[in-house]
Amino acid sequence: MNPSFGRGARTQLINQLLYFDEQSSAFLDDFCPQQGKERVNLEKFIEQYTAVLERLLAQDEVQFMQSLYSKVLIGSSVKVKYDDDGLEETFTIVFPTLTAPDKNYVSFLSPMGRQLLLATSGAVLTIEIPAGSFTVTIEEVKYACSGEFTKTG
């Protein structure tokens, strides 16, 4: 395992924690401006995500590196296998400003991104999207160091 990769990933995840701690209100205002149930759910979702990050960052280096290859985080590359036809596809979970459908960069706020975030390698999920639902198996997770937030995307 590459120690510099681990340090870079750790730094990026710490920066995510700091961002959500310091910029939570601005983030929510940008991406869910109306008060109500949706915003409350998003706040809880972000709280859950940051709690997981805090636990991961408290791990020793070996456990931390294992987590980077087993739990879907913002910045993770996720290979899924569609259960209906066996096809595989890889997505990278990113901040909304970095979404790029042509590269399979999926916002963690999108219906698919929200359901993949925090899932674990080997999990079988029924993904609900506006067009319907489908079942996938998470074949592989690896942190791709795509977890930085930018205002401009």
Automatic annotation (TrEMBL):
Residues 70-143 form the Transcription elongation factor GreA/GreB C-terminal domain. Signal peptide: none annotated. It comes from the Bacteria. GO terms for molecular function: DNA binding; RNA polymerase binding. SUPFAM superfamilies: FKBP-like (SSF54534). It holds the Pfam family GreA_GreB. One of its GO terms (biological process) is DNA-templated transcription elongation. Gene3D superfamilies: Transcription elongation factor, GreA/GreB, C-terminal domain. This is Transcription elongation factor GreA/GreB C-terminal domain-containing protein. The lineage of its organism: Bacteria, Bacillati, Bacillota, Bacilli, Bacillales.
